[in-house]
Structures are given as C-alpha cells and as structure tokens.
Amino acid sequence: MKDPATMFDTPHSAIDERLSDTKIAAKKVQVFYGDTHAIKDVDINIQPRSVTAFIGPSGCGKSTFLRCLNRMNDTIDICRVEGEITIDGEDIYDPKVDPVQLRAKVGMVFQKPNPFPKSIYDNIAYGPRIHGLAKNKAELDEIVSSSLQKAGLWNEAKDRLDEPGTGLSGGQQQRLCIARAIAVNPEVILMDEPCSALDPIATAKVEELIDELRTNYTIVIVTHSMQQAARVSQRTAFFHLGILVEEGLTQDIFTNPQDKRTQDYITGRFG
Ligand SMILES: Nc1ncnc2c1ncn2[C@@H]1O[C@H](COP(=O)(O)OP(=O)(O)OP(=O)(O)O)[C@@H](O)[C@H]1O
Topologically, how does it sit relative to the membrane (predicted)? Predict the structure, then answer.
C-alpha cells in the first residue's frame, strides 16, 4: 500500500496562497441523536474551490458533521444541531433559510449511487425543473448536456439519454449523481464516501472528476481511504469520538501531524 505521506509534490506556499479564504465556517457545533452526543464543539473553516477531506475511525461523526453543512440532519427526527454554521457569512440555520434552496446550493453525493427511477435525461432535468432554472426545452437540454459534460459522462450517455439511469454501471451512476448535483448550480458539493461502492477504475474516474471540479466548486468529502484523502484533498480534518482533533493542509496532516491520535490513525494503529 502506498504511504500517503509520500504522495505530495506541491510546495506549501502555493497551496497556502490558494487557500486563504473561508467558504464555510462552523463554530462550536454540537450534534445530538437523542442523548448521544455525536459531535462535540467543532470549529472549522472550509476553504472555497478546494477539496477538504474528513477522515477518522468508524463512528467518529464524519458523516454527521458533513450532513450539518446542508441541513440533511433536519430530516432525522431525534437529531439536534447546536452552534453556528455560515456559508459566505450567512447563517444556514437561520429560520429564514429554505432547506430546499440550501440543498441546491450545497449539493450532496452519497455512498451508494442513487439515481431516480427515471431516464438519464430526467435525472438531470428534475432539479432544474423544480427550481425553475430553464425557460424552455432548449435551455433544459443545454443544462442536461453541460452537467453531463462537467461530470465526465457526456460521451458515455449522449446516445442513451432516454434510457433509465439505473441501467448505467455503478461508476457511471455515481457520475450521473454528481451531474444531477451540478445541474442546479451548487457552490458546494458534499460527498459521503462517494467511491466506496465502486471498483478501482470507476474510483479513479471519480477522483479525477473531483480534482477537475474543485476549480469551480467547494468540495467536502468523507472518506475511509487515507490514500484517497491524500490523492484528492488539499486540506484534511481528522475526527475522533465526535471531536475535530486536527485540521490542516493534507500534506501536513499526513507527514507531520500535531496530535498523537492523528499520528496513530494515519499510521494504522487504530481505526
Ligand atoms: N440516525 C442516527 N440515529 C442515531 N444515532 C446516529 C444516527 N446516525 C449516526 N448516529 C450515531 O452518531 C455517531 C456518529 O456516526 P456517523 O455515522 O456520523 O460516524 P462516521 O464517522 O461517519 O462513521 P462511518 O465511518 O462508520 O460511516 C455514532 O455513534 C452513530 O451511532
């Protein structure tokens, strides 16, 4: 297995330069499922137009915290979120915020590809239709083709737009789900272990796509694979038992972690 610490070649100064702003700011975030305190006092600033990886052992709260960023936890009755999360300075938990609009701006891609039981075309067109993004069929066609192009699926899908999305391979389905998220003009894309159901070739394609997408989108990815975090992310956050132990440039986290728990995790001593 390739050591993540050997995978870096970008000078620090170049990365620091690019990552100087904040897109998402979380302050003192707590999440409870009933009496279970799943996220404890998490503070983090997430940089725009870059990939941030959340890593940590099973059950440490990565997915729970990710879901806070587009209020997906609102859909879980027993879940309670406290603290503050802003995107571009706006409090996303403000009662004035419409969660449906928020989830268009902050799209999500799940572990298992989950295309709708509809055609490839309609999978992409669904969001733009409900958000009124196209004035006519020609505009909708344009959104569908450009979303598939951005997701690297156009060549494989252009001759079968009327066929069911579920007829695509697993890797193609995941890129279809990414295209579906892109179609409603998101600024942030959250990915919860997007490659865990994919074979190595499909994984490599999705990772290449993530690398291309970071030019235009802020991406946050939960991954169990430290190699994947090292390959695709510029920053990495390590969670343990609901606490954000350490966050920083990915190459620092993998080559020079400040906390012993991070070091133990990245060297495979637990998790
Ligand atoms: N819907 C839920 N109801 C109750 N408890 C939950 C729910 N989802 C998560 N939890 C609990 O919250 C804690 C954090 O879980 P979470 O799924 O966020 O961790 P994770 O780091 O993403 O784990 P994994 O890597 O295994 O997916 C765990 O103790 C889990 O049991």
Answer: Peripheral membrane protein
